[in-house]
């Protein structure tokens, strides 16, 4: 049975941007998880944030001509049919999201807190992320390296 694993924005951006410092690690991590029969989940807020990061990055690095290709790569990697829509729960979870941000003194931003709470509600225990702030979320196990995929088999 496939273990559900959420993909964080920094991993998604690294997967599509070969100039990203985490690109090779993200590819190896994704491949290791797929080999471990993980089901990768992409939340809509991650797609939202990834598009913003790609836009800002290509502007700041003066790689304007690469924006379209990166966006195409993103939408090819994660088709609309493969997005898990959690933003619809934002209004219902708003107080809990703000409370989680507050408990983590802002280290978990609004989207990260929403993602963490959605994982809790959807009974998802794993997230692939290069963001160590998720380590403080008791119900999530963060996977950062290809070897970490073995935790899915335990």
How would you describe what is shown here?
This protein is an alpha/beta fold and 154 residues long. The chain has one domain: 5'-nuclease (Rossmann fold). 49% of the residues lie in helices and 11% in strands. It has six helices and five strands. The protein has helices at 9-16, 23-35, 44-60, 67-77, 90-103, 110-122; strands spanning 4-7, 39-43, 83-84, 126-128, 141-143. Strands 3-2-1-4-5 form a five-stranded parallel β-sheet. Helix 5 crosses helix 6 (110-122). The radius of gyration is 15 Å and the shape is globular.
Keywords, separated by commas or semicolons:
single chain, 154 residues, alpha/beta, Rossmann fold, 5-stranded parallel β-sheet, 6 helices, globular
Please work out how many helical segments DSSP would assign: 6
- Helical content stands at 40-55%
Indicate the structural class. Answer: alpha/beta
Q: Runs with pLDDT <50, length 5+?
A: none
Our count of domains comes out at: 1
CATH topology descriptor: Rossmann fold
């Amino acid at each position: 049975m496939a273990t559900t694993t959420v993909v964080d924005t920094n991993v998604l951006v690294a997967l599509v941007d070969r100039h990203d410092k985490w690109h090779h690690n993200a590819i190896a991590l994704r491949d290791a998880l797929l080999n471990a029969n993980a089901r990768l989940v992409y939340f809509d807020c991650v797609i939202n944030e990834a598009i913003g990061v790609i836009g800002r990055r290509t502007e700041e690095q003066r790689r304007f001509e690469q924006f379209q290709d990166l966006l195409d790569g993103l939408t090819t990697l994660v088709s609309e049919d493969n997005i898990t829509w959690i933003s619809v729960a934002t209004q219902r979870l708003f107080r809990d999201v703000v409370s989680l941000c507050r408990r983590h003194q802002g280290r978990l931003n609004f989207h990260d807190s929403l993602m963490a709470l959605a994982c809790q509600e959807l009974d998802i225990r794993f997230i692939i992320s290069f963001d160590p702030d998720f380590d403080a979320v008791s119900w999530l196990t963060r996977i950062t390296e290809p070897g970490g995929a073995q935790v899915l088999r335990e």
